[in-house]
Structures are given as C-alpha cells and as structure tokens.
Amino acid sequence: MLRRLSAAEAAVGGLLLALIFVLTLLQAAQRYLPGGGWVWTGELAQFGLVWLTFAMAGHLAARDGHVTLKVVDTVAGPRVLRLVGIFANLTVAVVCLNLAYEAYALVTDGSQQTSPALDMPLGWLYVIPLAGLLLTTVRSVVAVFLPEPETDDGPAVHAPAVHGAAPDAGPAEHEEP
C-alpha cells in the first residue's frame, strides 16, 4: 500500500511540476504576443508551487529525502540514531497534525473569499496542503516503526563501508571480511 501511495504522490508531483512549467512558459510567451496577457497563469503557477511543496512532503519524508543536517549521524551510534529518528518523526507527526487541523479549518471555513485572477474559492487552495500534511503525518508515524527509507525495490538497505571503501561504491566493496 505504501508503494502505491508513493507512486501516486510522485505522479501528482510530476503533474504539478509539469503544470508549473507549462504555465511559466505560457506566461513568458505572452510577453511577446500582442494584446493583454492572462493574469491567471501566474497565479495558478504560484498555487501549483504551493501544492507541489505539500504534495511531495510525505513522499520525501518516506524516502529520507528532505534537507537535513547529518551531524548526529557521524558521531552517534546506531541506538542514539534510532532514538533521534524516533524523536524527529514524532515531532514531525505532531507538527503536521496540528497544521492539518488548521488547513482543515481553512478548507471548511465557508469564507466567500476568492483568488484575484482565477476567482477560485480560497478554501480550495488548502485541500492539497491538507492532504499532504495528513500523508506526511502518516509517513512520519510509519517511520517510527519502520525506520528504513523506501526505494522503488522496497526498504533501503544501508551497508556500512568497509576497508575505506567509498560510500557510493557497489555492493562488492561492502562485503564483510
């Protein structure tokens, strides 16, 4: 189920990235065309960037793909790393759950505000962030119990480097003596 979720998140992320790309190109092309431009292209591209950020948050959390400081990784043992990972994932889950609650309040607000160019109800803007925050919460809770980041082939296996082998060396260099 997590693999299907990852595939769906990656597909949504790819579609949103393509949307941003097309809208940005369209906006640039409008500068050279006679007549007025379509203001909504810039607004939708900005919304797309916000949606992309939240839609991919869970996917990146599951693959340990977020920008992180790896200072603890170089000085701590495996047990300390595991405790730090549990603490970090629980913190992310709590924060995302609180943000999801606020996003839900914005979605169900019933406000009549709309975006300036698209005339889109602003409650709609927060639907994808709400889903992304809930998925990131789920991924963080799963990571507490299943700490290995996912790959396309399943959980990643981290083999320690032996005999000064480079970290990106193939499996043959990582064999135990």
Brief summary:
With 177 residues, the chain is mainly α. Helix content is 63%, strand content 2%. It has a two-stranded antiparallel sheet.
Could you explain how this protein is built, in words?
By secondary structure, this protein is mainly alpha-helical. It has one domain. The protein has 6 helices and 2 strands. It has a two-stranded antiparallel sheet. Strand 1 and strand 2 form a beta hairpin. The longest helix is centred in the middle third of the chain and has 30 residues. The radius of gyration is 21 Å and the shape is elongated. The two termini are 37 Å apart. The C terminus is likely disordered. It holds the Pfam family DctQ. GO terms for molecular function: transmembrane transporter activity. Keywords: Cell inner membrane, Cell membrane, Membrane, Transmembrane, Transmembrane helix, Transport.
Supply database-style keywords.
single chain; 177 residues; mainly alpha; two-stranded antiparallel sheet; 6 helices; elongated; DctQ; cell inner membrane; transmembrane transporter activity; transport; transmembrane helix
